[in-house]
Amino acid sequence: MYKGYLLSDIRSFRNAIYLLWHRTTLHHVYSTSITHQANVNPVSSILQRLQQEIEENPGSLPFQEITYCNLGNPQPLGQRPITFFREVLSLCDNPTLLDRDETPSLFSTCAIKRARMIIDSLPSKNTGGYTSSQGIRSLRQAVADGISARDGFPSDPDDIFLTDGASAAVILCTSDNTLHMSMHGTWKWAYFQNKTAMSSEDAILCPLPEYPIYSASIILHGGTRVPYNLTEHDGWGLEIFEVKRCLEEARALGLTVRAMVVINPGNPTGQVLSITNQEEIVEFCRKEGLVILADEVCQDNIYSENKKFNSFKKVARSLDYDENDLSIVSFHSSSMGFYGESGRRGGYMEISGVGADVKDQIYKVASVTICPNIAGQILTSLVMDPPKLGDESFESFQAEKEKIHSSFWKRAKTLEKAFQSMEGISCNKIEGALYFFPRLHLPSRAIKAAKAEGVSPDIFYARRLLDATGIAVVPGSGFHQASGTIHIRCAIHPDEEKIEAMIPRLKTFHEAFMNEFRH
Ligand SMILES: Cc1ncc(COP(=O)(O)O)c(C=O)c1O
User: Fold this and answer.
1) N or C: which end of the chain has fewer CB within 10 A?
2) Across the strands, what pairs with 294?
3) CATH of the domain at 370
4) According to DSSP H, which parts of 152-274 are helical?
């Protein structure tokens, strides 16, 4: 498995060196913390076996195909890429097409114009060269323009770092040899101050349940994760008194808490924070000198009439704080939203409220892997600066976007209704992101049966579900569910037809499971 991780993650020679450097720690983390990757999901070996069985012996299983509700990976499940994005990407990769007579009949004028602008702004005038470690300036400018239009507050391209997906940005901000943040939100740098690694006294507040890249990266780099509980019975709300309790406990133990991770909209929990709640968080972090690490990768996935996405930076600016009062790093990704381009590895982080010296150091750390990939950089600029009203591609772009978004919305509501109707399952409304995290209240005999098999009840349930129906979900322990609770994470990525078709199978399985272990 360790080998598998290296093979799938090595994208360049430098990345390989970096990973080898961390071999010992990596092995430790791998065995203790990283369970979110598909290849280490505890049901994944069964998944592979069943997929092989379907291919080699069709008709031998009680189902015809696997329903992949375990992954946040839309395109392999049938989601079509956005045409404008792909047109621009292909023209940028094949710039000779720009001068061919037939090109205007094959590509939209908008895409041709955008590709030409991008190519002209590339240092090597093609997509085959290294770029600045921070990302190409014109593309950062496009991202900054998109942020300004979204938030109504200015964004500076010098505050933007384009990255290989949000993951690379998160790892950079939670890593050793990189940042040490002072109690007052002004970052100090360990590496450049003769302190070579984050120590276990350096801590970061993380939600629980969480998207586990945070705990994995913090542990990998020798720091400490301080979990704070989201309140399940209150729609996975984020209560400041709970965060304060965890902060005080951590400080009493001698930890230096440097930052607070907030995932909004939530993965795996699907909640969207209210603006009042965000204001409380901003005020709390300012007062306590914590940097906000705002994971906003699902900002374009909102399914609520009453809730709206607000970036933490916008909330902080609306409160009229001096920019230097609070450091915020916001992460975004081209993997989510209606774009769903997870394989392109596009993303950015916007760093606000830090000095030029800190940005210089971030630049140095980013330069360890030379530069983010160019397709990801271009895609991220397109996500943040798509066709506008009046552009030739606007209507078709908008139609594609709406189609995908309304389909997510329908799937979310269908699954929500199904989970809420099932015995022994409580499930919060999904307001955003791409997942449900229903809680299972299983009979004690089921819990004993799981114990007898040497697995936790969530794994026991998920395995049984997969074996009986072909429906793949992720056991809640992969997201550090609160102890004593049992959850599964179910993604809404299979298309509407597949979701409709799986619900009777899910309900029949669940009823039979509950009956089997009832007494
Ligand atoms: C909450 C959250 N943060 C970060 C990421 C990483 O995104 P990327 O694919 O851009 O690395 C994901 C991916 O699923 C996510 O759900």
Assistant:
1) C
2) 262, 330
3) 3.40.640.10
4) 165-173, 213-220, 240-252
Of 384, 402, 420, which one is at a domain's C-terminal end?
384
Mean predicted confidence (pLDDT) in 236-254: 97
Nearest protein CA to atom 7 of ligand 1, as residue: 166
- Can you tell me whether residue 302 is helix, strand or coil? strand
Average pLDDT over residues 104-118: 96
Q: pLDDT per residue over 222-239, tens digit each?
A: 889 999 999 999 999 999
pLDDT at 40: 52
Residue 156 lies in domain: 137-384
Q: What's the chain's average pLDDT?
A: 87
- 26 and 148 assigned to the same domain: no
| Residues in Cβ contact with 462 at an 8 Å cutoff, skipping those fewer than 6 apart | 42, 43, 472, 473, 474, 475, 488
For the Cβ of 352 lying below 6 angstroms from any atom of ligand 1, the answer is no
Instruction: Say if 153 falls within a structural domain.
Output: yes
Q: Is residue 510 part of a domain?
A: no
Same domain, 340 and 199: yes
**Is residue 102 in some structural domain?**
no
Residues 376-400: tens digit of each pLDDT: 999 999 999 999 999 999 999 999 9
pLDDT band, very low/low/confident/very high, at 198 (cuts 50, 70, 90): low
Q: Based on the structure, what is the number of domains in the chain?
A: 2
Residue 2 lies in a domain: yes
Of 333, 362, 384, the last residue of a domain is: 384
Residue of 333, 377, 437 best suited for mutating to test ligand 1, as the one with most atoms within 8 Å of CB: 333
Ligand 1 pocket check for 212: Cβ under 6 Å: no
Residues 166 and 17 grouped into a single domain: no
Distance CA 127, CA 93 (A): 6
Residues 6+ apart with CB under 8 A from 252: none
pLDDT at res. 412: 95
Tell me the pTM. 0.90
- As for the ipTM of the complex, it is 0.99
> Does residue 174's CB lie within 6 angstroms of at least one atom of ligand 1?
no
